[in-house]
Amino acid sequence: xxxxxxxxxxxxxxxxxxxxxxxxxxxxxxxxxxxxxxxxxxxxxxxxxxxxxxxxxxxxxxxxxxxxxxxxxxxxxxxxxxxxxxxxxxxxxxxxxxxxxxxxxxxxxxxxxxxxxxxxxxxxxxxxxxxxxxxxxxxxxxxxxxxxxxxxxxxxxxxxxxxxxxxxxxxxxxxxxxxxxxxxxxxxxxxxxxxxxxxxxxxxxxxxxxxxxxxxxxxxxxxxxxxxxxxxxxxxxxxxxxxxxxxxxxxxxxxxxxxxxxxxxxxxxxxxxxxxxxxxxxxxxxxxxxxxxxxxxxxxxxxxxxxxxxxxxxxxxxxxxxxxxxxxxxxxxxxxxxxxxxxxxxxxxxxxxxxxxxxxxxxxxxxxxxxxxxxxxxxxxxxxxxxxxxxxxxxxxxxxxxxxxxxxxxxxxxxxxxx
Length: 419
Known about the structure:
The protein is of the alpha+beta class. The chain is built from 13 helices and 18 strands. The radius of gyration is 23 Å and the shape is globular.
């Protein structure tokens, strides 16, 4: 549960201790505990590799889950592991811990230190997690690369082939509070300018605003690799100069997750008004979460929204601390190439860099000048991907095992010494 990371960190520290590995625990606030452990290279040739995950999770409503499945049990049923966080992100945290343990047990020679880092507070912004750790453990700022979350391996996503998406960038975040005020009174008399009605009218216009498709550097490469995977007449057309990104974008933008990679998006995340029936409230409030592509101007987006809200007398306020810049890492690197070589494993498929439409701790490393690649390596179906932070979040046992093997091989190539 969010805010109870101490239990998860304590359990992981115990597992590592059983394997002869010392883990340090750092309490940034009551109950908010971060874990860090390190495998030291005998003669480091490169700056450390960080295996980054987080132990907090999104809320889970038990009533939405299948009968007999406890969202916080990690139950195994019909070949699947069920539980909140199995895909975001306790599953990756456990995989990282197992990879870290294997490196230790097999005495894999290292050319760089490998750091296991499990943070608190990622779901709420990372203030008590990675941000706190960078401030209080400055040696983390000397890291050379972090491997965290952001992209997934999705089965049969493109022309029946698996797509292994490794996030090298993230969108920026802008959160705006919208407030409509009026005089509250009994609901038997309905004026035309009630606060809830005005807010709803204004929000309808804002949510209908169109944002154009825009192809950033990582997504251009993403579309080129996807186009290269198509054969026949359609593949020939997509491979024509100048056609690949535009036509592939048209194809893939029908997939909601991909559409979010090529547009700025506006989501209504909070809508509240009133305390009881029979009385018209004097105030209505909403929060908009805007995710912006690299290069998008947050001031222009805010002004565009303000103009729509102003038509109904709705006031706008930017939430403090809720503005984060878009960020990216270079993916033309030996480390990315090594990860890509092992991403598909024996399943095959297309390996692509991508821009994550979500926000993660990776942005904190990137903003500190440390490259971060995000990949949850377990091959999942589109249906199972849809369970992330939702009801019946799950991953197949076979997929978990395959993904962990693929990621382990990538980590060994990136951090292992050939001597």
